[in-house]
Task: structure prediction
Amino acid sequence: PLKRLQHAMMELAAGSDAGPIAEAERRDELGDMARATNVFVTEIRRREQALRRAKDRADTALAELQKTQTDLIQAEKLASLGQLVAGVAHEINTPLGVALTTATLVGDEARRFREAAATGQLQRSVLQRFVERMTEGSQLLYANLTRAADLVQSFKQVAADQASGERRSFDMKEWLHDLLTSLGPMLRKKGHDVSVECPPDLTVDTYPGALAQVLTNLLTNAVSHAYDEGQAGRILIRVSQPQRDMLRI
Result:
């Protein structure tokens, strides 16, 4: 009986799926040992199952937390892109509006010139005025359409940075200009003056999307909470390079 008890206990110690020790039916000291072992093993298995259930719940909670984190990051990106789209619409509306008005005026001038030419009453002064207006109109069209194209390129780069999250090298001063252009409507709405002090030709190698999110949040907080309602303030972004491998903003 002692050898059978020893063998059964060794099987349990080896982690096998052996059932309860049969010697527990005895009414002597060996039976007491067997029953105690069965109770001990049963309790261990119960706790092991509870730990497994707790681990499963923890894994599920971790997966949900990771999904929530991903959703929050995505929502933050979408909010930033939404603000960017609003900035695009507002900023581009001005040069396009000027270009549209200029194109209409140029069309009217061309129509009057054509009518004068058709009647054979084309005077030198009319021709000179037409040339002047066409020159002025073409310059206005070129300047404003170029401005609109530059704005589109700036917004496109800012949006690409925020959406991709990739690392790249870029000129810090130009990048700040593009970022502030995208935030222009929000800043001008409150009447705040925003200025930048940044060394020229300062190239950095980092993650522009994440950096844009940080600065956007700081500027939004400053606009929303730094001043009383109706009070205009000054927001300064100063960039310096205290060491060769360090950037301070």
